[in-house]
Structure formats: C-alpha cells, structure tokens
C-alpha cells in the first residue's frame, strides 16, 4: 500500500508484517529519549501498536505514520507521516529513523514528501510539528522543510514540555 515515493524512498502503510521493525525502532535508545517509551516489548506488542496507532489513525483520518523504506533494497529505515493528536489543534508531522540511517538526508526527503502530500492531496492548510526540547537534529529537519520554532507547550498532564513548530 504505497502512499509516496521519492528518489530514494518508498513510504507505505504499516502492516502486521512490519512488527519486527517496529519492535526494533521503538526500543532504540534514541526513540525512547526523544519520543518516549511506548512499552512495546514483544512482536505482539508491536502488532498492537501498528493496529491501534498508525492503522487506526489511517482509518479515522485518512493519514498516519508511514513506514519509510529504501526504494532499491526495500529495507525499512524509519517512520514518517502525519498525526492528529488530541492535544494539538492542527495535524503534525512526525518522523523517526534508526540511527544507522541518520545523516543521509532521508528524514528531510521523507518529511518534504509528506508535507507536499499533506498540502496538495489532503488539502491541509496548516501542518505543525513538536519535538523534545533537546532534539536539535529533528529541529533542523523541521526548519529545513519550512517550519519555524513557535513556543514551548505542555505535552501531557505532567510537567513535560515540547517545542512547537509551525
């Protein structure tokens, strides 16, 4: 179920067959540090995450986080897509890649394609983003795709704050 294609990447909907990749990505220390621990510890947990997260969002809104894979090899390298969170008025773009695929331009390539898709196909007037305050590499990608830091906002009922870009 391909959604987008760039020069080097394919973005597609997640399936239960992606559970082993999701298990690896969500337990990578960089995911836990920058996004948070989702409690995904088994392949069953990963399948549940896919079904109740990205796929449920796709059914509800027609968009979600997509699996990003290398076009030539088909190797999954990360996630990138659009998310509708209860705490944000607007749809936000999100992405995460395994560290071995960082610094190769993949996040920018995928995020640029998702922004264009959101605007031209989904007719979204405004797309925002949030990052952990210390996540400078994601902030740089967001600025490169045209978003600007706006302010710090509360992310949940606890004291966690995130940077809002719009």
Summed up:
The protein is of the alpha+beta class. 34% of the residues lie in helices and 27% in strands. It has a single domain, classed as Aminopeptidase (3-Layer(aba) Sandwich).
List SSEs in N-to-C order: EEHHHEEEHEHEE
Could you give a short account of the major beta sheet? 8 strands, mixed
- At the fold tier of CATH, the topology name is Aminopeptidase
Q: Could you say which overall geometry the principal axes of the C-alpha atoms support? A: globular
Number of domains: 1
Question: pLDDT average, as an integer?
Answer: 95
CATH class division: Alpha Beta
Q: Count the helices. How many?
A: 5
Query: Count the strands?
Result: 8
What is the name of the CATH architecture?
A: 3-Layer(aba) Sandwich
Helix content percent band:
25-40%
Distance between the termini: 29 Å
Q: Roughly what fraction of the amino acids lie in strands?
A: 25-35%
CATH H level, superfamily name:
Gcn5-related N-acetyltransferase (GNAT)
Estimated radius of gyration: 15 Å
User: What's the arrangement of strands in the largest beta sheet?
Assistant: 1-2-3-4-5-6-8-7
Label the structural class. Answer: alpha+beta
């Amino acid at each position: 179920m391909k959604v987008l294609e760039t020069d080097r990447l394919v973005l597609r909907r997640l399936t239960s067959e992606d559970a082993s990749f999701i298990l690896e990505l969500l337990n990578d220390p960089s995911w836990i540090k920058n996004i948070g621990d989702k409690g995904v510890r088994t392949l069953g947990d990963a399948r549940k995450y896919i079904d109740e997260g990205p796929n449920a969002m796709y059914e509800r809104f027609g968009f979600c986080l997509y699996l990003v894979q290398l076009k030539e090899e088909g190797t999954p390298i990360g996630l990138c897509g659009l998310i509708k969170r209860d705490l944000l008025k607007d749809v936000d773009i999100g992405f995460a890649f395994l560290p071995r695929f960082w610094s190769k331009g993949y996040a920018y390539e995928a995020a640029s394609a998702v922004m264009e898709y959101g605007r031209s196909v989904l007719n979204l007037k405004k797309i925002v983003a949030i990052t952990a305050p210390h996540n400078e590499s994601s902030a740089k990608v967001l600025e490169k795709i045209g978003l600007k830091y706006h302010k710090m906002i509360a992310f949940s009922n606890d004291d966690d704050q995130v940077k809002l870009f719009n």
